[in-house]
Amino acid sequence: MNFKKLNIPEVILCEPKVIGDERGYFFETFREDKFTAFLGKKINFCQDNESKSSYGVLRGLHYQSPPFAQAKLVRVIEGSVLDVVVDLRMGSPTFGQHVAVELNSELKNQLFIPKGFAHGFVVLSKEAIFAYKADNYYNYKSEKGILFNDPELAIDWKLNGNNLKLSEKDAQLPLFRNAEYFETKNQ
């Protein structure tokens, strides 16, 4: 597994070594020792989630407030998505900035998103199966979000707005300036 820090250095792109032949392929999707060594700290994942979505479905931008904030390791099992992460950590040099990465089933790449970030994705392929590990359990009462098309964030979702499919809840999320931010100590 190869790890790369992105423009927001706490957000990590994970690129596996895929071994393939005429029979198919094999790769390690997660290896705690290497992941911990790169991060310099242990992440205790406790919940795995999976969703299936069609072309143009946009899920996000979501996060959970402390003490139920989650670090996530996300990947695409089938298809392709544009994955977007927004820094909500007040006092961070990258506060309010975002990273966008295409994750797809061909590259089998993954993205590590630490606590203190909002997360969302849009499906670029006909369908996508999206999976992720979380280090804290989902808690309905601490679920928060930011409107995907907030002009202050200026996120290029790579699809025309007419092609986007959002839940009613996601279409009514607050703007970034009205979001609940993270104190630096809550990271």
TrEMBL record:
GO terms for cellular component: cytosol. It holds the Pfam family dTDP_sugar_isom. Substrate binds at residues 23, 28, 47-49, 59, 72, 119, 143, 165. It comes from the Bacteria. GO terms for molecular function: dTDP-4-dehydrorhamnose 3,5-epimerase activity. Homodimer. Catalyzes the epimerization of the C3' and C5'positions of dTDP-6-deoxy-D-xylo-4-hexulose, forming dTDP-6-deoxy-L-lyxo-4-hexulose. This is dTDP-4-dehydrorhamnose 3,5-epimerase.
